[in-house]
Design a protein that fits this description.
The structure is a homodimer. Helices cover 12% and strands 30% of the residues of chain A. By secondary structure, chain A is mainly beta. The radius of gyration of chain A is 16 Å and the shape is globular. Chain A starts with 8 loop residues before the first helix and ends in a 5-residue tail after the last strand.
Chain lengths: 137, 137
């Protein structure tokens, strides 16, 4: 099980062969986005194995960096993510999963999106606060 | 110029102090999303310095991993990104920039979004193709 090796820039950007680029830890970032509202729900990472399983199952399978194991989202929490579409970017080193979120939310805290706090502009690093947001969209 | 050190899990997830977590290269991923349509335009990375400048200017400043330098998006291309809102996630190791894209698009290829190709589901890694998408939203 392996994806083709990324080719030269032109092929990577304009080609129609999927050659995902994994980093030095074998990971690629995947943005989970609600397929209907466009709300960004979370950012997680995939190994080649996780990505292959996601393509096969049509459900999001990530790699847990903290637990260092394959993470079929929802398998223990019920927060399954049904994948409607996967997109890759110009240099094929990032993914978007356009998904339908099951189980009431994407975040383990119970929030719909993991992005439930805003960082107000104009602050300095030494003194920067967060403000809760109910729904970024 | 430095952000506070991340605290314990509870504080990280529920607190209202911004303590962004940078990886071992000093980077944090930032998702640029159109503030009106919700379309995800690109994924890039920031150093603490880039993030501080973004907060100060209200325009996206990233760190270019390939050029290994601060990257004020648009300074050479005109593709400036006016930041309307910044969000951080539960463990504060990822950001969303809700932006207004100037200069006709976010991608250096001329596309509005860098995510202009889809990865059809059900494919095997050995034989996976891409299909162009005109607008993922």
């Amino acid at each position: 099980m392996s994806f083709p090796t990324p080719g030269p820039k032109q092929e990577l950007e304009q080609g129609l062969t999927f050659t995902p680029k994994f980093d030095q830890y074998g990971l690629i970032p995947a943005i989970a986005q609600d397929h209907q509202t466009g709300q960004v729900l979370m950012l997680a990472y995939m190994t080649a194995e996780a990505l292959a399983k996601t393509l096969e199952l049509g459900q999001a399978v990530y790699y847990s960096r903290s637990r260092q194991e394959l993470w079929h989202k929802g398998a223990t929490s019920g927060q399954y993510q049904i994948v409607h579409q996967i997109l890759t970017d110009c240099d094929q080193d990032a993914l978007i999963l356009r998904i339908e979120q099951l189980g009431g939310g994407a975040c383990h805290t119970g929030a719909n999106s993991c992005f439930y706090r805003a960082v107000p502009l104009g602050q300095t690093p030494e003194n920067s606060k967060l403000t809760p947001v109910s729904d970024p969209d």
